[in-house]
Design brief:
CATH class: Alpha Beta
CATH architecture: 3-Layer(aba) Sandwich
Helix content: 25-40%
CATH superfamily: Cytidine Deaminase, domain 2
Largest sheet: 5 strands, mixed
Radius of gyration: 14 Å
Oligomer: single chain
Order of helices and strands: HEEHHEHEEH
Strand content: 15-25%
Distance between the termini: 29 Å
Length: 144
């Protein structure tokens, strides 16, 4: 999670929402990404999406069933869908996202009968640090 938090810090410094993601394959880091929708002018450029895409390129395959995804924030519905389609084995995330999350909040994507793959899910990893980074980012944006 340290690598994902570092990527999130880099995202914040670039003016992006501070979310970072890391994909490991058999314990080896194969992709690290930070949120970049503004920089890439791409609303799908969430950290998870970028990390999954990079991992698929590294492994030259679309199924990442022997991979783990570590992300600093609970994935949204789009990212949860990508996690399922990529067949990610395990999802580890930090802060919960009551407004936009889709794992333990909102649509609870992986609990839906139409979801074809459900990763093992571990939440609350470095939650305090990830949540504090997000709070600080949005406080600065609002000028509070």
């Amino acid at each position: 999670m340290h690598r994902a938090l570092a990527a999130a810090r880099a995202a914040a410094q670039a003016g992006e929402v501070p979310v970072g993601a890391v994909v490991l394959c058999r314990g080896e880091v194969i992709a690290v990404a930070a949120n970049a929708p503004r920089a890439l002018v791409d609303p799908t450029a969430h950290a998870e999406m970028l990390a999954i895409r990079a991992a698929a390129r590294v492994l030259a395959r679309d199924r990442l069933d022997d991979c783990d995804l570590w992300v600093t924030l609970e994935p949204c519905a789009m990212c949860a869908g990508a996690i399922a389609h990529a067949r990610i084995a395990r999802l580890y995330y930090g802060a919960s996202d009551p407004k936009g999350g889709a794992v333990e909040h909102g649509p609870r994507f992986f609990a839906q009968p139409t979801c074809h793959h459900r990763p093992d899910i571990y939440s609350g990893i470095a939650e305090a640090e990830a949540a504090a980074m997000l709070r600080a980012f949005f406080t600065d944006r609002r000028g509070d």
